[in-house]
Design a protein that fits this description.
CATH topology: Spore Coat Polysaccharide Biosynthesis Protein SpsA, Chain A
CATH superfamily: Spore Coat Polysaccharide Biosynthesis Protein SpsA, Chain A
Order of helices and strands: EEEHEHEHEHEEHHEH
Oligomer: single chain
Distance between the termini: 36 Å
Helix content: 25-40%
CATH class: Alpha Beta
Number of strands: 9
Number of domains: 1
Length: about 200
Amino acid sequence: MQGLRIVIPAAGASSRMRGGDKLLEQVEAMPLLRRQAMLALGLCADVVVTLRPSDVARHAVLRGLKLQIAWVVQASEGMAASIRAGSLGASGSVMILPADMPELDHSDLQTLTQAFAAAPQAIWRGASAGGLAGHPVIFPADLVGQLQEILGDAGARAVLGANANRIRLCPLAAEHALTDLDTPEDWAAWRAKAKPSAAKATP
């Protein structure tokens, strides 16, 4: 989609994985982070992945992909640092695409961007089929400056709160907009119910 930047915040420490890295878990026969990046590149050419300077393994799984890396020195601050780094210099709208949501697919992103194209002044937020707000979120170009002002680990909640009247929910398939996996138990439960081809365990 022309004029859109997709930001994939991937500078978190994955601390709840107790030594593992959720973004390197295998989904559809590849590391989750690479899958999310390829999903984004299938929609637009302006894709930014945020990483800590020490993220050698995450950086390695992105090799060969035509995207930008935004190094986040202040990653310990929380999600806001990634969003600021990823959205810096964006000339149009910005989609925040979480790196840890393995059920999102190309159809979901198309549905969301088509809704945005029809009403580009709104903040479009992915939702479950039942209408519960989730992710991804697309912010119009005029709000990118506000993304540059956020702080802490609350992500873009301050921008969403300040512009609540502009938020519209876009229902996506099933629970795709809600499913994020942060712990080994989350991954085990998800794999137990997911299709084998979509949830291949890490060797």
